[in-house]
Amino acid sequence: LHRHTEWRKIAKKTRRKRIRQSVAKAKHDKEEEERKRREQSPSYREFLRKCEEEEAFQAQEEARLRHEAEQRWLKVEEEAQKQWQELQKKLEEARQERARQNALIRLEWEREQQKLKALKEAKEKEREENEKKQRQLQEEIENFVAHGGETPEHLKVNVEMNPNKATCPFFQKTAACRFRDSCSRNHIKPGVSRILLIPNFYLHYSLEQSENEHGDSSLEFENHETYSHFKEFFFDVLPEMERCGRIRQFKVCCNHEAHLRGNVYVEYSSTREAVRSFQAFNGRWYAGRQLSVEFCNIESWKSAICGLHNRRKCPKGSSCNFLHVFQNPHNLFQAADRDEHRTPPKRYVEISVKNKVHRLFLLY
């Protein structure tokens, strides 16, 4: 049974194959006859000729278009090559110019660096020389303070704030000017002197010029309250300054103007003592403030101090440019107010006669 089934399948397959082949052969024979018939037809031959002509014409046209397109492309390519070459030439020139500029900049930078180096070396050399000179000057000052002798020459040089201008009369008398360093006249400051000025050293609220809704704030304090505060300041500061040497004059200003308010003037008996005091107090802190000490010249205390202030007759009042000073307790240094401390002292010799010493004053 199984073999019969297989045989039937093969027989059916073979039969279908014969049928397909016969159908295909019939179709091929029919198409071949149709082709031979068309080939023998004049119209078909004319059609084939026209098709061949059209194909040839189309091929020629396509070749022409390709040639024209190729020519256009070659022309564009030539122009692009020309532009590219010009661009490369410009870029090369720009690179050369940039290289030249960079070379110039580098050369200038090297020259500038050499100048800066030379300037730095010069400044360093100058700084070292200045430091050496400052050390020498400091040693001279220390030697002068410790052992005395002649005042170093470099300390005797005066500093002029406005040379070739007229001398400021108020600064010449009081060593203070309301215009300070912006004054149109000349302020001559000594390199060293026997008199020290400590600006705005003494402070009290009654000396401040401030207005409020109730009027002048300085009127809230009585004069005795201010003077009591001044005496505390006087007995606090004077002993400290006397440690540096003998004081010939000590004055504290009670002016309300900013350039005179609370200024303290201290005159020592010698320049050496004044320099020692300057070293001790300049930069020192007092009552939360750092002191700034200056050397100054007061030619005459009698001319610097306002004589009408103590008699309460000063017409300028708080705006007076002369010194309104507190009266020192126990009238200390009162003789200096009249410049009597600067008169030459009487010289004398002591002669012993019969065990008794006689003092003979020499008058000049």
Query: Going across the major beta sheet, what is the strand order?
Result: 6-7-3-10
Distance between the termini: 179 Å
Number of helices: 7
Assigned CATH superfamily of the largest domain: RRM (RNA recognition motif) domain
Mean of residue pLDDT?
85
| SSE order | HHEHEEEEHEEHEEEHHEE
Global morphology: rod-shaped
Q: What is the gyration radius calculated from CA atoms?
A: 59 Å
Name of the level-1 CATH class of the largest domain = Alpha Beta
How many domains comprise the coordinates? 2
The structural class is: alpha+beta
Which ranges are low-confidence, i.e. pLDDT below 50, for 5 or more consecutive residues? 210-220, 345-364
How many strand segments?
12
What does the main sheet amount to? 4 strands, antiparallel
What does this structure look like?
The protein has helices at residues 2-39, 42-147, 169-174, 223-242, 271-281, 301-304, 334-337, and strands at 159-160, 188-189, 195-198, 211-212, 215-216, 247-252, 264-268, 285-286, 289-290, 294-296, 347-353, 356-362. The protein is α+β, with helices and mostly antiparallel strands. It folds into 2 domains: 67-147; 153-342, RRM (RNA recognition motif) domain (Alpha-Beta Plaits). Strand 8 and strand 9 form a beta hairpin. The longest helix has 106 residues, at 42-147. The protein is rod-shaped. The termini are far apart. Mean pLDDT is 85; it is low at 210-220 and 345-364.
Feature tags:
364 residues, alpha+beta, Alpha-Beta Plaits, 4-stranded antiparallel beta sheet, two-stranded antiparallel ribbon, disordered C terminus
